[in-house]
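ping. complex inputs:
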Amino acid sequence: MNLWWSSWEAFWAMGGQSYFVWMSYGALLAAVVVEMVSLRLRRHRALAAIEEERDLEAED
Amino acid sequence: MSGEAVSATTARREQARGSFAGGFSWAMARDLRLAWRHPDEAVLTVAFFALVASLFPLGIGAEPQLLVRIGPGVIWVAALLAAFLALPGLFAADYVDGSLEQMTLSPHPALGWAAGKIAAHWIVSGLPLTLLSPLIGLQYGLAPDTLAIQALSLLVGTPVLSLLGGACAALALGARGGGMLLALLALPLFVPVLIFGAGAAEAQATGLSPAPHLSLLTAGLIAALVGLPWAVGAAVKIAVD
Amino acid sequence: MNWFYFASPATFYGLAGRMAPWFFVTAAILAAWGLYLGLGVAPTDAQQGEVYRVIFIHVPTAWMSMFLYFVMACYCGLTLVFNTRLSAMMARAIAPTGALMTFVALWTGSFWGRPTWGTYWVWDARLTSELVLLFLYFGYMALANAFEDPRRGDRASALLAIIGVVNLPIIYFSVQWWNTLHQGSSVSFKGTSMHVTMLTGMLVMSAAAWMYAIGATLVRVRSVILERERRAQWVRNLPEAA
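pong. complex structure:
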């Protein structure tokens, strides 16, 4: 299980195709971040809606 | 109980239960009668088709070779859009005035009247488009054999559009978003039909055999005829529940 | 084991909350291992050079995009047949993750295609049908949220998802049916044309994508349950809702 790369520079350069490789992996990272944020937001909104509903009923 | 009495009872029960054929012919005759009384919708569909198809030469140039090259595809796209725009008329009025609910309460199975409504809709929208397509094709300078294949591919493909679109139109009844939502639901499902339909005429125009495209399109039609009337009936039931 | 016990949203809410972190942890470990293999250890591809390393995310996300649609359609079938509430909530929870996987598969595919085919996009069968899949996910989500009555949205969108299933075999077999630029599958049961490390990396990344998708779905279904059951007493008794 030896590493294929001789140096970090060679790793980042990806044999001159760094743009395509890192744009792909970057998109995956962005997608995961977007999903994590949206999951958290949705949960906060759902909990806030429960709160709101309860307050409305308390007023009645 | 004598044999006669039994058969009479079965016949009566049969009548009360309704049948596929009964529902089909009743719904089709009803919708055709309505369309005959108000022919403007069918006329608009056909006019839209001709209009869109004539916009392309004006937009991208009228060189004869270019027109022959793009003709089959443009005619198919125009027919697809015209068929799509005719979809809201399929169920919307019946949904609003409650006749759709009456149909779900009728003794006939949903499969029957759903198929009948779709068939009537195709006769009013898909069939005129098919019949008009050779005329549009002539404007694009297509060869006679290409015109024939074009019309044939539309004849097989437009019923699939009516069935798929009918299911989507029924699902979108009463939904927020209206026409845009219907476009998002129906147009992606139309894509395979467009590919094979336009592909058949295209192949004929470039000297290849249109048979593979046409047979895949026919397979699609058979699958759609088997599965989708049921789906349309189920969708209408969901809508009126 | 009584499955109907877990089919109640109230029970499943707690169960999903306990399970989700484990799926995320497993996904993170597998992804770290898979990325180490794929980006670090695997050798350069003789024909394509380094850009082939996109395969370690492209193939797993493309598989998941189809598989998640299939699972979603199965839940939709349960919704229509048994009218169960939880299955509809699960289907709604899967859709956004499926759409995201589809998007990543399309995006990475085009960044792989540019250096190897010379173009970001071709209108061939596989790319087109994968794009159609993305629109099917969008259509499903739009229809599910288009009604005042959420139960109506559940049932209407379930039927739409089932109609859309016909697209899956088209995507899957498109490479064989058409002459396309898209290469055939590199993995087959007869044996593979790939280096062992590459194959291992790809399978590990696929397992990571799988675990991640389950984790994300479980977290999202908890929010869906809260949204739908917000008037129920058990929701109001939850410590997090206090």
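Chain B has one domain: 23-240.
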